From TrEMBL:
Pfam families associated with the record: GAF
Listed name of the protein: GAF domain-containing protein
GO molecular function: DNA binding
Domain OmpR/PhoB-type, first and last residues per copy: 269-334
Keywords from the UniProt entry: DNA-binding
An individual GO BP term: phosphorelay signal transduction system
Superkingdom as given in the UniProt entry: Bacteria
Organism classification: Bacteria, Bacillati, Actinomycetota, Actinomycetes, Mycobacteriales
Keyword RNA-binding recorded: no
Length: 454
């Protein structure tokens, strides 16, 4: 019955696209063979899987997910699920989601899944045959699709990374999900918090850019609806709109975007919380002092086409927060220097001050952002910092890195840390024990596998 998820006849695709999907399936199937063998065979996974999928598979292995896992009865069901779903913020968006996504997808023989911020399935929409087929592989209302629970899948990856993505056939970690393809996108609150995930699932025709673009467009429309609702609620409660500030070129502005906390703008000592989108735009403008045209800024904010009207509206809203004179136009550029914690971190790395860099590094750059330009900055800083840490034969630096979330499972860093410690000391035994734990999680030499996480 799972074959019903393909939604009828296979689509007519360009031969190149079909060949690419065929190769992807063959490589992923081969990767599953190495996965079943375990041990040193896991080192063969690199090169067979897309980097995003490879990282997810390795996390799934470490988390103890069984690729042969069968469906169990766990999940939120009945009245408990109804109460939870009805009270969830995404419930108010369902008429819009139905209009933009569900109706067309159902007519095409596909299913639409709406999940919460944790990957819990709130609802599954489509023809009864497709819904039943999805239930047979574990995509049911009330089920947990988080990566932690079932390994690599589109919903779980969105929850984990905050970025829209698609997973095709045997790229799924669980064998029972190999006959479907899922394309999923996140839905965020106006303050940047993830509140849900939208996914279209079906056969191989879901593995097309148009499908992912459709899901992302629906998610963006849902986010805009949430913004409008928040604005109406604010005016209905008698709250006044934020004052339109105007700062001179001598004003001192600072932007903090490192770590899991809310992005913050400091204005002459006063701290103001920023939305995710405003922080993204401000950081990108700070990173490009020469300025960005609307088209370039749109590409850095989203890898699908954002129209210039959307960009203008976003920048206009940002000006109401930071001041009309701060951001110039044609191209968009900052007229006032904005000192960012990213800039400070780079300066510390440039000067070789690794200890200061580690103190500044409160966490990844805007970790919930999926904007391509932000992801590039995030990856650049993480790689630069980790490279500097591993190149520094300093026990204090290595201790600080291995105690932070990103370095906690960094086997190469633990091995470097071990080399700085006296073999007879109790600390050496503790580090050795940690490395053995990492070895057991991976099922192979952890220091060998570490290159996959770099």
């Amino acid at each position: 019955m799972v074959s019903n998820l393909t939604g009828g006849r296979p689509p007519r695709q360009a031969s190149e696209s079909g060949a690419q999907l065929g190769a992807l399936e063959a490589y992923a199937a081969q990767a599953h063979g190495f996965l079943s063998a375990g041990g040193e065979q896991l080192t063969q996974l690199a090169g067979l899987l897309r980097p995003l999928v490879l990282e997810s598979w390795l996390r799934s292995v470490r988390g103890g997910v069984d690729p042969t896992d069968i469906i169990d009865g766990r999940g939120l069901r009945g009245a408990d699920l109804e109460r939870y779903r009805d009270a969830h913020p995404i419930a108010a968006l369902m008429p819009l989601i139905d209009k933009l996504l569900v109706q067309d997808a159902s007519h095409a023989g596909l299913i639409v899944t709406v999940a919460d911020q944790f990957g819990r399935v709130l609802s599954v929409h489509g023809h009864p045959e497709q819904i039943a087929a999805a239930a047979e592989i574990g995509v049911r209302e009330g089920d947990d699709l988080s990566e932690r629970r079932i390994g690599t899948n589109a919903v779980g990856l969105v929850v984990r990374t905050g970025r829209a993505t698609w997973i095709h056939g045997p790229e799924h970690f669980l064998h029972r999900m190999h006959q479907i393809t899922g394309a999923a996108a996140p839905v965020h609150e106006p303050d940047g918090r993830l509140i849900g995930v939208l996914m279209i699932a079906g056969g191989m025709r879901v593995a097309k850019p148009e499908i992912l673009a459709l899901v992302k467009a629906a998610a963006t429309a849902a986010e805009m609806d949430l913004v409008l609702r928040a604005m109406r609620a604010s005016h209905g409660n008698g709250a006044s709109a934020p004052a339109n500030r105007d700062y001179s070129e001598q004003a001192k502005l600072g932007l903090d975007v490192l770590g899991l906390g809310q992005p913050q703008l400091s204005i002459a000592g006063e701290r103001v919380s920023l939305s995710q989108r405003h922080a993204e735009i401000l950081l990108l403008l700070a990173e490009h002092p020469e300025g960005l045209g609307a088209d370039h800024l749109a590409l850095l904010l989203d890898d699908t086409d954002l129209d210039n009207g959307t960009i203008r509206a976003a920048v206009s809203r940002l000006r109401t927060v930071i001041g009309a004179s701060v951001v110039g136009s044609r191209p968009y550029r900052l007229r006032v220097h904005v000192a960012t914690d990213v800039e400070a971190l780079r300066a510390a790395l440039d000067s070789g001050d690794i200890e200061s860099a580690l103190r500044l590094y409160a966490g990844p750059v805007l970790p919930r952002s999926s904007a391509p330009g932000i992801c590039d900055i995030r990856d650049e800083l993480r790689v630069r910092l980790r490279t500097a840490v591993l190149a520094a034969p300093d026990a204090g630096v290595l201790r600080r890195w291995t105690s932070c979330p990103e370095g906690r499972d960094d086997a190469a860093a633990w091995a470097a840390y071990r080399s700085t410690v006296d073999r007879e000391s109790p600390l050496y035994a503790q580090i050795e024990a940690k490395i053995r734990v990492l070895d057991r999680r991976i099922g192979a030499d952890a220091t060998q596998m570490q290159r996959f996480d770099s």
